Amino acid sequence: MTDYQTARASLGIRLRELREEAGLSGRELAARLGWHPSKVSKLEHGKQTAALEDLRSWARVCGLPEAAEGLAAQLRSLETHYANWRRLLAGGHEPLQRSNAPLDAATRHFRILETACVPGLLQTADYAAFMFRRGVRHHRTPEDIDKAVRARMARQDVLDAPGKRFEILIWEPALRIRLGPDPVMAGQLSRVASEITRRRADIGVIPMGASMDVVPSHGFWIFDGKQVLVETIGAELSLTEDLATEPYRRAFAELSAAALRGPRAVRLVQAIGRDLST
């Protein structure tokens, strides 16, 4: 269970406690609120996220309007763990890129796994433009591609910041998926090979033929081992509880052991580049 699911379940438990303290059945509460009984059940079992007004109405009907403030605080905490892309990108991609600056500045140890695309810190401007263009189409967000690319390129300066450590793992399919025209992909692969040699970051490429106990099913970023960001098709998850972040730290360590580094990684990237023409 993710932090988000745990937080929503916890909120549901508190709602049920308030109802029971008021001596109301689920059906009675629903009738007083003018809701379908299934809504009460879904909220109490963490199957649906309550709106702020729902919480206020619930507390009022249970005779404890003062409890609304605590419920609202739980809701705010829940929302920090889950943000859908439509909301995150309401102002476009550029503001979201810039919003990462405080976390980047505060983090000393970055652990990054990407399984479907080149990590943003290693992207060329041309490759990034195609990534943002896809995001605009998919999420129907404001088109600020040029500004977003400039912001992403500026974010890469963190690689030269003193006192920071970067461990980056890229699964081979992420380098093979043609997210742009062949010339763009060729330039991007050349950039990855160059960064491996440059050693600003410890970059490992996990070959498709590697024997692994962990399935690299999706990418994630670990910030100092304290926070994990996971991007899904519909939302970004922010995990902060140790119980939720520990599996990601363990998975990263196991996947890291399967990665190629140095000249062997460069040779694999170059071989992928040669395959572009076949």
UniProtKB/TrEMBL annotation:
Entry superkingdom: Bacteria
PROSITE patterns (UniProt xref): HTH_CROC1
Any Pfam family: HTH_31
CDD domains registered for this protein in UniProt: HTH_XRE
SUPFAM superfamilies assigned to the protein according to its UniProt record, in alphabetical order: lambda repressor-like DNA-binding domains
Domain named HTH cro/C1-type: residues: 15-71
Protein name: Helix-turn-helix transcriptional regulator
Gene source species: Nocardiopsis changdeensis
Lineage of producing organism: Bacteria, Bacillati, Actinomycetota, Actinomycetes, Streptosporangiales
